[in-house]
Amino acid sequence: MASQKILVTGGFGYVGSRLTPLLLEQGHDVRVLDLNLYGDDGLQALEKHPQYQNFKSRFQFIRGDIRHPEVVEKALAGREAVIHLAAISNDPTGEIDETLTRQVNFDAVGLLLAKAKSAGIKRFISASSSSVFGIKNEENVTEDLEPEPITSYSKYKMLSEWLVLSASSPEFTTVSIRPATICGYSPRQRFDLTVNKLTADGVTKKKITVHGGQQRRPNLGMTDMINLYCHLLDVPSALINGRTFNFGFENMKVIEIANEIQKQLSDLNAEIVVTDTTDRRDYHISSSKILRELKYEPISSVRREVQELKKMLLSGAFSDIEDARHYNMKSMNIKRDKSPYSFLSK
User: Fold this and answer.
1) Which CATH class is domain 5-344?
2) Which of 40, 47, 193, 202 has the most CB atoms less than 10 A away?
3) What sign for the dihedral angle of Cα 73, 77, 80, 81?
4) Domain boundaries, the chain
5) Run of H or E residues at 29
6) How confident is the model at residue 341 (pLDDT cuts 50, 70, 90)?
7) What are the beta bridge partners of residue 155?
8) pTM for this structure?
């Protein structure tokens, strides 16, 4: 694997805080652009990394907003590839302010793509979401089925895929990945995701509260997510350019997730409590395309990620699982900004 100069937007978010050190460990030169809306836990964890002194010469952090053209230009300068993770993330958070969600999850993607092409970037890897499918009854939800987003978050993720596709060219390789709901440990930990929340409650409260239970959720281990982004840096352009891939390997009902977590916490005697819910979102995906065409071999699972998260919780890594910084809805503090449109008016 050849070393590359990479920009990671959102490089200290939930996924980015695990991806950034992995890229550095693999020898890449990494620049992170992030507002760190949810705190500096990811940055602080990197600075405590045993190899940080070896990383310092290959690492740069820009605290900035992807909606600002001048910030984006600075972040892209001298880079070869972009891994775009920055977003107003998840369905409930996206409903707080639809215009804000559009600015960050759609308008800013267009800005970033335009500036990336001008800067001579060769490869653009974009994080979409499997939630673009909405509610589907088909047994295998493959990439050729029509997206039917039911939230602002998923709508603008779907629309941004068109921007990424449209920007592709022989000189500019673009690809969109639709991850399932990611689970597992991160220095910028989230406990507003199904597997993580149920595991944390099981460990700290000895109670796994399931709302509803029959809704299906596609799941993806953090380890697979960060491995795939690294893999995509070296995949031949012809296999991915202008394409979109589902990425998730365990389609489970929420009650099935709870049962697996209870099994992994058997020594803690955690009980399952089922309540009613108004959240009827139900979706599942097939990832046969990425398995077949990119030869990706999954190495993680819900079971493995629960085991790792259990270990971190029991070690005292998180002083309070209810702390607002672990929940996007509780801690996000960002306002609308007209800056993305300044470059359109020139």
Assistant:
1) alpha beta
2) 202
3) negative
4) 5-344
5) strand 29-34
6) confident
7) none
8) 0.95
